[in-house]
Design a protein that fits this description.
Layout lengths: L1 E4 L5 E4 L4 E10 L9 E8 L12 E2 L5 E2 L8 E4 L5 E7 L1 E9 L10 E6 L2 E3 L9 E5 L3 E10 L9 E8 L12 E2 L5 E2 L8 E4 L5 E7 L1 E9 L10 E6 L2 E3 L9 E5 L3 E10 L9 E8 L12 E2 L5 E2 L8 E4 L5 E7 L1 E9 L10 E6 L2 E4 L3 E2 L2 E6 L41 H22 L1
Parallel strand pairs: 3-12, 13-22, 23-33
Antiparallel strand pairs: 1-2, 3-8, 4-7, 4-9, 5-8, 6-7, 9-10, 10-11, 13-18, 14-17, 14-19, 15-18, 16-17, 19-20, 20-21, 23-28, 24-27, 24-29, 25-28, 26-27, 29-30, 30-31, 32-33
């Protein structure tokens, strides 16, 4: 209060206007001071006049920058890591406006506060009279896809997501913000600094992620796939970027198929490699797709000959003197078939073998990563027939009896005819018996 006397004798009593000091704080939703926001302050004093700000009345916070070049009715500065102090503010109504927000933050609405009789009031004024203008962080929804090299979604991978926001704080994930893809399942049971889930047949969306740096890690790969390296991505002002980020902002983590080299040997029953067998190999991978064989992955054995002329679903070759190596086979079920056997050998039955997580198994002919198909030699049988001939000789003896007529002249000794006949009969009988004994 002061006094003055005019020339006409009038005494004038003058009241000084209240002037008040105010701290202006630019913070995030966690109450941390945020640097880099461009702010303006304008005001009308209680008389309705524009307030003129003196730069001498401004004490900038740490790291803050004055943008106004002279005393002005619009005070402009860039926020720092501590609040800015403005002194000698007259009673009136003031508006604090954010021109641009720092990276990672949304522009906020204007803040209005009032000074009356030196007291600062307003919706965002603290108990100690600090005017607070708060920025919400930019929050982004990120789609995370677990795929194979063909771009197909792969279920069953255990994945974890961790991150550090742009302020350097470890991100705490809200599990209610994780929208699982079809067939996916959440492993994490509570909010935490590590979000863990099992992938499904569609991508999983993690919502409301703050700007920052994130790491996607594969704990365990699905059957048939190799565990891949970590994928990192960045969110800046709501834009997702990284080496594996697609144009639509999807973060891809890609698994390679497990690939296995298989030796295929063609031998006889003695274990010796035999050349000249025409063989084919076909297969279905673990996803049920027909395998397409790359001829560049076939390492023929010594003396073997490739019959297939281009990549295809049937690999055909002729065996040589050493085994043939077929490289980079995916997990699946394969059939080795003999089209034609070498000369002197029987065509054998098919061999079926399975590759699971790089391990080759089968019921026949599988030893480690070697599949052996064995041919039996053709056996020639000679049959000898012996014929025995028996000859039987039959001797017939005829006995002739001589009848002498009654009127025949008698010669020799009377009665001699009967003994003579008897003698001939006895002789004949003896002869027959002898022949029978000889026979």
């Amino acid at each position: 209060v002061g006094e003055a006397v005019r020339s006409d004798g009038t005494v004038i009593i003058t009241d000084d206007i209240f002037h008040t000091d105010a701290f202006i704080s630019k913070t995030n939703v966690y109450g941390r001071e945020v640097a880099g926001a461009e702010l303006t302050l304008r005001g009308k004093d209680f008389n309705g006049d524009d307030v003129t700000f003196s730069l001498d009345d401004v004490t900038l916070g740490t790291g803050a920058e004055m943008l106004s070049q002279s005393d002005t009715t619009e005070l402009t500065w860039r926020s720092g890591t501590t609040s800015t102090f403005v002194s000698n503010l007259a009673d009136g109504t003031y508006t604090l406006h954010e021109v641009t927000a720092p990276n990672g933050y949304e522009l906020t609405t204007d803040i209005t506060f009032t000074i009356e009789n030196g007291t600062v009031t307003g919706d965002t004024v603290t108990e100690n009279g600090t005017v607070v203008i708060t920025d919400d962080m930019i929050l982004s929804d990120v789609s995370i896809s677990k795929a194979d090299t063909a771009g197909d979604e792969v279920a069953g991978a255990q994945l974890t997501l961790t991150g550090t926001d742009f302020n350097g704080d470890t991100v705490t994930f809200d599990i209610s913000k994780a929208v699982m893809g079809e067939g996916a399942s959440l492993v994490s049971t509570e909010n935490g600094t590590e979000l863990t889930w099992l992938s499904g047949t569609t991508a999983t969306v993690v919502k409301e992620l703050r700007d920052g740096n994130y790491t996607l890690h594969e704990v365990a790969a699905p059957s048939g796939y190799e565990v891949t390296t970590d994928v990192t991505f960045t969110i800046s002002n709501g834009v997702v970027s990284g080496e594996t980020v697609t144009e639509d902002g999807t973060v891809m983590i890609v698994d390679d198929l497990i690939r296995t080299d298989v030796n295929i040997a063609k031998t006889n029953t003695g274990g010796t490699e035999i050349a000249g067998a025409e063989l084919t190999l076909t297969g279905k991978d673990f996803k049920g797709n027909t395998v397409v064989f790359d001829l560049d992955n076939v390492q023929l054995g010594e003396g073997a000959e490739l019959i297939s002329r281009s990549d295809g679903q049937v690999l055909t070759w002729k065996s040589g003197n050493t085994a043939t190596l077929v490289k980079d086979l995916a997990d699946g079920i394969y059939t080795l078939h003999e089209v034609a056997a070498p000369s002197g050998y029987e065509v054998t039955t098919d061999i079926v073998f399975t590759i699971t997580n790089g391990e080759v198994t089968g019921t026949t002919g599988v030893d480690g990563n070697t599949v052996t198909m064995v041919d039996d030699a053709i056996v020639t049988t000679t049959t000898t027939t012996t014929t025995t001939t028996t000859t039987t000789t039959t001797t017939t003896t005829t006995t002739v009896a001589t009848v002498v007529p009654a009127n025949a002249p008698k010669t020799g000794v009377a009665g001699a005819g009967i003994p003579l006949a008897f003698m001939f009969t006895a002789f004949g009988t003896a002869f027959v018996l002898r022949r029978k004994n000889e026979a």
